[in-house]
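Hi support team,

I'm opening this ticket because the web form for multi-chain structure prediction keeps timing out on my end. I have pasted the exact lines I submitted so you can reproduce it. The total is 703 residues across two entries, so I didn't expect it to be a heavy job. Is there a limit I'm missing, or should I split the entries? Thanks in advance, R.K.
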Amino acid sequence: MTARLSAGRLWAMARKEWLHIRRDSRSLAMAFAVPAAMVVLFGYVITFDVRDIRMAVLDQSNTTQSRDLVDAFRSSGYFRVARQLTSDDQISPLLVRGTVRLVLVIPPDFARHLAAAEPAPVQALLDGGDANTASIAINYAQAIVTSYSATAVLKGVPLPVPIAVDSRVWYNEDLKSSSMIVPGLMAAIMMILSALLTSLTIAREWERGTMEQLAATPVHRLEVILGKLLPYLGIGAVDIVLVAVVGGVVFAVPFRGSPALLMVTGMLFLVGAQGLGMFISASAKSQFLATQLAMIVTFLPAMLLSGLMFDISSMPKVLQVISLVVPARYFIAATRGIFLKGVGLEVLWGQALGMLVFALAGLGLAVHAFRKEIV
Amino acid sequence: MADGVVGPRDSASRDSPGCAVEVTDLTRKFGDFTAVDRVTFLVDPGEIFGFLGPNGAGKTTTIRMLTGLLAPTSGEGCVAGLDIRKETEALKQRIGYMSQLFSLYGDLTVEENIAFFAGLYGVAGERLAARRAWVLQMAGLAGHERQLTAELPLGWKQRLALGCAVLHEPPILFLDEPTSGVDPVARRNFWELIYSLADGGTTVLVSTHYMEEAEYCHRLALMNRGRLIALDTPKAIKALMTEPLLEIRTAHGPAVAQALQGQPGVVEAAMFGRAVHVAVENAQAAAAALPPLLAARGLDVRSVTPVRPSLEDVFVALVRREGGAVLG
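Hello R.K., no limit was hit. The queue was backed up. Here is the completed structure from your submission:
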């Protein structure tokens, strides 16, 4: 096609596409209500924080020292002492039924060991059925015991503390998972929603027969794709702000970086995701098939292989390689960097490059798949 | 903007002097099926040129090739001086096209549809205001600018579609069965619009399967099974039928038509509405011989009258002469 591009035709396409969206309440709801609702829902549901773990205590020492240790557990906020036990036989049924997840056993010679300035072992029994919670609980328990030992030393009780761990968490000081999840969700939601919304647009023209009239005009296929993209880019930009605001207000997610950088990388990402949706739409030519395909292609990868919920570096090698072509991975790394660390392009250039490639690929695929031929 | 996309050359006069459409051996195959088979014709500027034939005759495929919507498998074509193979996009700026099914946007209002197609054809500013007013007046839609197109009656939709197809005042207009589905009155109104466009100098290529509509065309291309079987004025085409024609009115149409096939003196018998049209070798002899022959088979005949052949009769005769069956 040798015809030159025309701003007038591009504008006519964009305006027409916006009118379609405005007249279709389903599209509007999907564009604005769904992302806000998804952030709130997912922000609450996807949580890795463990609080109020139910525990039981078998205190065979029954001394001031042993009660201090139990109090340390209680006041940490991570544990709730649900039962005080009196004998060994009571332990097993509690763990089996899941009444408690951890049982702390303080042996009778606990206070004597302390007084003798010897190591005073205590026992923690855990329900490993939920391995994730169990490992978090044991970490908390160890931290509490360590801190108890240190306090004991400060109070003048001579106690050998082999290593004092002084750890400090950066960027997400409270280790709140919503701070991790919300910026990541922004990427996952944008990916799924963009592809879903745009997957309808070209297939709809085919189904309604309007493609024939459109194809008979001198409109360039790049003008069709870009014109259809523009209103959805606008919606995407509003959604990015919306998600950031909901994250800040509802979950107190910090925003430390540059809003402009978030917008620019977000736009690159949106062009890619929407280009992908249009590619699917132009290839499928049926709205039903196109939305199904868009869901399959975006949902699982954006949720599971993007680093949103599972750390990519601890995945099997094969999945790590596959995740390289999951565009959400780059935007998630970028949003977390921008929201939590306040870093700029000096750190995120790799992610920005990944999204630029994605944007060009999405556009290229869409323009390639769109044909003005009526058979 | 609009002028910029017309193309590198203004070649209407260079390539084909005085001709709006020129087609040589145009062919389109879909796999083993030949939808259009070596079609050749020429259309003069200002002409109303009709394609007549049953569904599946290749009319739509021919029009799609001429409008740059479908690439020919072989053959050459030139529309408004532009090559239909290589200059499809420049070509689209020079023609108007209205497809078989209503294909404007139903969820857009009348004026939004006009604005959209004006934008695509590069009609802007004062010219847009003038063209917009012209379309609304022509289609009788003044006062309905803000109505959703989906809510309009079919006849109005078709007039709006015609208006949107000629917003940019193309010299050549293609209409693919533009009146299918509307009542005869709306059809007549539509043809008045076509005439007024042709009077203004627009070349119109229109396909139809309504025989009475074909009579409105200056020249007709009769198509069957992808082939062009006749090309002339409606009058000349009707003169192609040399055998006298009898119309038999009867209550047993199909049985009569069947009984007459192959009888001595009968060339062809076919249903025509509820009557039977019989092409015969000798009108007087047949008019005398046929009623007793049918009565002998228990088929009573109400009347036998000589009639002038209609386009449909000629169509059937021409297809028979070609040795084929009418499709559709």
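A quick check on our side: Residues 177-208 of chain A form the longest helix (32 residues). Let us know if the file doesn't open in your viewer.
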